[in-house]
Amino acid sequence: MKFDKNMLALYAITDRKCIGDRGLEYSVEQALSGGATMIQLRDKEVDFDTLCKEADSLLKICQKYSAPLIINDNADVVIKTGADGVHLGQNDMELAKAREILGKDKIIGGSARTIELAKKAEQSGADYIGSGAVFGTLTKADAKYLGTENLKKICGAVGIPVVAIGGVSADNIPQLENCGISGVAVVSAIFGADNICSAAQKLRKLADSVIYGG
Ligand SMILES: Cc1ncc(COP(=O)(O)OP(=O)(O)O)c(N)n1
Ligand SMILES: Cc1nc(C(=O)O)sc1CCOP(=O)(O)O
Ligand SMILES: [Mg+2]
């Protein structure tokens, strides 16, 4: 799938604990029907084969909504399943290596919480950057606080689109106005909500207003 920065507006990232017994497929479909524009399969508790099975079933759902499916951490799952891309952090495969093995048509995202790392990600062939933790988060134990001012500096330093991640919720999305982001990446405020579809709907409206104005 050809990458377009509008795909980033509401980037929903799965979480086994948030979803609980509601089911991965059901929860992702709820997020997409509420307006999530891109999905990241982030499941650190399963082996390669299980991750591939999860990716296979999510791909069918994402294709129904024309939304890309990105795999967290694992480029081999992208190759095996035909998922749309991979998201890699500083402790994962090098972005340049991922570009080499996945080719130019797959979507590659990189985490960067400094201007230097963001520029390096851009030079290494990343399509977008995830920067955080813009607010406090309980979802990722080793996330470090970034804040909106640092986020704004990163957005201004690179030519590729940036998504804000970490503690993003309906209450604080308006604080991201004028940061220059192209989207918000959200775990618990979507998949931890009682009603995933309506949570996504509300977040999408707020995100669109920050990104596109209005
Ligand atoms: C969109 C987006 N941004 C940042 C991250 C974090 O990636 P990473 O630093 O590799 O941490 P883990 O998610 O692997 O724990 C992300 N996943 N998505
Ligand atoms: C996956 C992830 N990466 C982060 C980073 O700072 O790079 S914060 C984070 C978790 C975001 O979850 P929630 O929306 O529930 O706060
Ligand atoms: Mg990672």
UniProtKB/TrEMBL annotation:
Q: Which Gene3D superfamilies match?
A: Aldolase class I
EC number(s) reported in the record: 2.5.1.3
- Sites binding 4-amino-2-methyl-5-(diphosphooxymethyl)pyrimidine sit at Q40, L41, R42, D43, K44, N72, S111, K140
Cofactors demanded by this protein: Mg(2+)
Q: Which GO terms describe its molecular function?
A: thiamine-phosphate diphosphorylase activity
**What are the UniProt keywords, alphabetically?**
Magnesium, Metal-binding, Thiamine biosynthesis, Transferase
Binding locations of 2-[(2R,5Z)-2-carboxy-4-methylthiazol-5(2H)-ylidene]ethyl phosphate: T137, L138, T139, G167, V187, S188
- CDD domains xref list: TMP_TenI
Per the annotation, how and in what number is the cofactor bound?
Binds 1 Mg(2+) ion per subunit.
Tell me which residues make up the Thiamine phosphate synthase/TenI domain.
10-190
Q: In which pathway does it act?
A: Cofactor biosynthesis; thiamine diphosphate biosynthesis; thiamine phosphate from 4-amino-2-methyl-5-diphosphomethylpyrimidine and 4-methyl-5-(2-phosphoethyl)-thiazole: step 1/1
Q: Which residues cross the membrane?
A: none
Q: Which residues bind Mg(2+)?
A: D73, D92
EC top class, as a word:
transferase
Which reaction does this chain catalyze? 4-methyl-5-(2-phosphooxyethyl)-thiazole + 4-amino-2-methyl-5-(diphosphooxymethyl)pyrimidine + H(+) = thiamine phosphate + diphosphate; 2-(2-carboxy-4-methylthiazol-5-yl)ethyl phosphate + 4-amino-2-methyl-5-(diphosphooxymethyl)pyrimidine + 2 H(+) = thiamine phosphate + CO2 + diphosphate; 2-[(2R,5Z)-2-carboxy-4-methylthiazol-5(2H)-ylidene]ethyl phosphate + 4-amino-2-methyl-5-(diphosphooxymethyl)pyrimidine + 2 H(+) = thiamine phosphate + CO2 + diphosphate
List the signal peptide residues: none
Please explain the role this protein plays, according to its UniProt record: Condenses 4-methyl-5-(beta-hydroxyethyl)thiazole monophosphate (THZ-P) and 2-methyl-4-amino-5-hydroxymethyl pyrimidine pyrophosphate (HMP-PP) to form thiamine monophosphate (TMP).
Family to which the UniProt record says this protein belongs: Belongs to the thiamine-phosphate synthase family.
| Protein known as | Thiamine-phosphate synthase
Natural source organism: Ruminococcus intestinalis
Species lineage: Bacteria, Bacillati, Bacillota, Clostridia, Eubacteriales
Instruction: Tell me what gene encodes this.
Output: thiE
